[in-house]
Amino acid sequence: MPTDSIRLHAVFDLAMRIGEGLLTNGAAASEVTATVLRITSSSGLRNVSVQVTFDEVVISYLEDEGATPFTRVRSAAARVQDFARLAAYEDITHGYISGEFPLEEARRMAGAVVQSPPLYKLPLVVLGFAVMGGSAALSFGAGSLVVVAATFAAGLLIASGEFLARKHIPPFYGQAIGGFLAVGAALAVHLINPAVNSSIVVVSCIIVQLCGLSSIAAVQDAVTGWYVTAAGRILETLMLTVGLVAGVRGGMLLAEAIGADISVSASIPISLITVLWVVVSGIGMGIGFGVGTQVPWKVLPWMALVALISALISHLVTGLFMERLYAVTLAGLFTGLIAVVLGDRLRVPTLLFVMGGIIPLVPGSLIYRGLLGLGDDVSSGASELFGAGEIAVGIAAGAVLGQLLASRILPYFRRSDIAYTPSISLPFTTLRRRRLTMGSRSFRRRTGTPVVEPSTMTGEMTALSPALFDELDDLDPPSDG
């Protein structure tokens, strides 16, 4: 096999490993596509096309019009929540592009990411999600009994879900069992002390189970035009939510059979003590979710800060002058903005802070009220569930808009492009649109500096003239864009 073919296979292998790793860990289709194109471009390959679907990455290279296309297809593994691995893939990508890692070293590192042990062991992961569940209960003003029950129930449902996953049971059934366990814990609280609001246990567990779904990436793909990937992610989110609904409804039938009242109460009013609850619960949810999703320890305080501020914005704005839908959208907008800033400053993926910031905004109580309403008045219950869906879309749309604005504004305050800024753009598949991954034309003209693109093929840094990018801007967009 010629040396050029060997190197081509090596470059595609690295691009495939990175692309699959990003897709598996929840990155949006635009980010996966842009990252793969960065890798192939820095390797000297220009006529490259990338296609990303829900569970597949396709890369094709055409050397010239008379050559045979070289195409590789790789299926993504099951979805996981491991932000340490997501950060590792991005570090490898930037190290390779900058010339810090040679090709073979980058391939070795990318292959080692999957085989590396998790940052936190399973008991600590379960404890993290348990703390998150207890903190979510505290945000509703729950007492000590309910907080303890929510902590125990959240840890139990995460442990059971992990056990089923290791037995290769589809996650739909794990969601259903988790919903049933949540209602069972609420029934136990009701039997111990009927005076307390035991429904908060169920609401807290709903928040824990829904926080890991790929709704943010799904909405980001949908609003930016990556409809195929968005459709798959939305369907996945819908099916897992249906599993949760089935489990909760089964538990509620059991509660009705024994005459237990686990109806949810209204939102807590604003006061000094409620603000204190929101502060403590926001910190707890941020840290708990961070530990549960393998966030590096040095990033945990920042993740907790984003969750805290997001919870405060939502709580105060909702209670003072704005509807819940607009309040959470505003909080999501702030989360997206600050996530891009922190991601660039700390050199970690933006998705970490986005997911941490939206946790306090998950409409768990609305979902539960809708499920309760379905048993008495179908139209009322459906209305509550529709309201929960509106809030979920509002959260995701606000977070995506915040990232989009920050990624467009921040380059004007720096002398070079931001390596860790997410790529949020309309569909593109070839390097005709590679300016999307290297910075805007207005930024290059304003600074007057050439873009420096590393070339790992020659081992040198090649300065590209801004005029080259002006010519690229004049090209027609690809037909599939």
Q: Can you describe this structure?
A:
With 481 residues, the chain is mainly α. It has 18 helices and five strands. It has helices at 3-24, 29-42, 83-97, 103-115, 122-139, 144-166, 171-192, 199-210, 215-223, 227-258, 272-292, 300-320, 324-346, 350-358, 364-376, 378-409, 441-447, 466-473; strands at 48-52, 56-61, 70-75, 451-455, 460-464. The strands form two sheets. Strands 1-2-3 form a three-stranded antiparallel beta sheet, with helices on one face. A two-stranded antiparallel ribbon has the order 4-5.
Secondary structure blueprint with pairings:
Blueprint: H1 3-24, H2 29-42, E1 48-52, E2 56-61, E3 70-75, H3 83-97, H4 103-115, H5 122-139, H6 144-166, H7 171-192, H8 199-210, H9 215-223, H10 227-258, H11 272-292, H12 300-320, H13 324-346, H14 350-358, H15 364-376, H16 378-409, H17 441-447, E4 451-455, E5 460-464, H18 466-473
Antiparallel strand pairs: 1-2, 2-3, 4-5
Helix pairs in contact: 1-2, 1-4, 3-4, 5-6, 5-8, 5-11, 6-7, 6-8, 7-8, 7-10, 8-15, 9-10, 9-16, 11-12, 12-13, 12-14, 13-14, 13-16, 15-16
